[in-house]
Amino acid sequence: MDFECLDAKLKDRHGLEMGLLSTEEYKEMIKPVYDYIRHNHPYVTVFLLNGDGILCPLKTEKFEMFVLLGVCCTFHPFSDFVSVSQSLSVEEMHALENDNRNKVYDSRYINTINADGKDGMLVISNNQMFFDYYSYRYGAESFHGLEAKDRMQYLSSKCNKGEKILSFGIIAIVFTSSVYQDLARDIRNALASRGKNAYLLFLRDVSYERLISIDGVECIVVVDCPFFEYSGPEIHVPVVTPFEVQYALSGEWKDFDKNLFYYNELVHDSLSTGEGETSSSKALERIDVTGKALLRLKNQDVPFSYEDENDKSVHMGQSGIAGHYNKEGQ
Fold it and tell me: Known InterPro entries for this protein (predicted)?
């Protein structure tokens, strides 16, 4: 951590609210950095935040400034921050100089050169999530000896999921940030043009608990930062990415990226083959049908009961859970 740089950024910034965002790898640094800021810049308010594997501004609260302890997302950079850095040994530098592959460094390595090699890709990072992205997409290898997962098995499983999407009736499209709202809409409209019922849902936290609460759907499409992918326990419906939808609608595997989706191309192909709706009004009708289908689910619940009928705290979310079952949902 460059404390001189941190001091310069915090100088005379009275009333600043900043986030101290860290991954598990750097948990031992949290207290020393926090104590340093509190002692040397008492006019700054520091909030402790936890990052999951890779630090991405789309996955955390918004603050004026951040101290970042971990590998940062390369797709969504932070604007005002100070971060940890990492250096290569002399031996490692020599080894890289003699390697002709295209080199990808994580955010902790500064003043490094990304040479345009022609013999594959080499990832210089000991962060598994960072390496996995490039391994799955490009078949990259790890400079630090991280284990590569089975790329073909991973991609084949995605294609297998994609083949089933056209058999689903109601599909939820979850987007985790406003950055992906337009992409989520394109996916919804493309599905609607194929006669599918699809609706949008914003969830910043794509966790098991959140996903299992999505009821009345047969499939969930998650539009998220490419470094992240749901890996929790299996839920009641398939969880896919835009890539699987692209594969399902086009029937082709041209390239791989989790957020790969060619909306205009898909809609044009569906209309030219007669598989899609012939107007945008038809697509809007499908969206309206989706809403009506979801409304039919509103009475499929178990009513709660309580002894004191005048106690409305349970309605306000202040107390109580379903105590016993009087009847089944209709």
Answer: DPH1/DPH2, DPH1/DPH2_3
